[in-house]
Amino acid sequence: MRALSALELLSVWERGQAQPPAQRALTLLAAACPDSPPDALAKLSIGQRDARLLTLRERTFGPQLVSLATCPGCGERLELTFSVGDIRSPSPCQGEVGEGVVALSLSISDYEVRFRLPNSLDLTAVADQGDVTATRRLLLEHCLLAAQHNGEETATDQLPADVIDAVVERMAQADSQADVRLALSCPACGHQWQATFDIVSFFWSELNAWAYRILREVHSLASAYGWREADILAMSPWRRQFYLEMVRR
Ligand SMILES: [Zn+2]
Fold first, then answer.
1. What is the rounded average pLDDT of the residues 1-16?
2. Which of 32, 97, 212, 236 has the most CB atoms within 10 Å of its CB?
């Protein structure tokens, strides 16, 4: 993986405008990993994908993250500052990898289930389902590979609820980077809770703010000096800031 230039980042941002979040994540990774086939990136488990996005975020905007949260107890607005290292999962994705897909198996109460971890192709396939429960069930169906009951093949849609729950829990354990939670505590009322952190939407909203800022800078410099957009974007941020200060005097 390599860091992206200002020009490349803008082009990713532009392509991602019309894309759903799962596709934006792949557009970012494809630009940063030109040697990985797009199909291989799409087959990474969500945790593997997010680990790579964290690395790319660190190389693009640095290791520090600043996020906002609202206390569900009293409505106080909190500013959270943490680092990429704080939310990196200590245990990387588990399971055997075959043809780019991570497969796992589980034995529970006479059942033996083989399944794989959800990837970007699954997320894209189940998007637009509307309600969360239907989306989750469909996602799970995509990921169940085979099931046996007392040694006999059985249909994966016939599995009892406790077996399904165990599979879901095993998936979360095996791909812990896919579900990052921040333990929060409100300084105003003492309420404690957990907030989900989604690197895709976080990184994309940062990229959005960055793109608006840099396009305004290009506008100012191009208007003042007549320079081309590509030349302005190719400058280091320090040199760009210097000229901007000259223009604003
Ligand atoms: Zn509070």
1. 94
2. 32
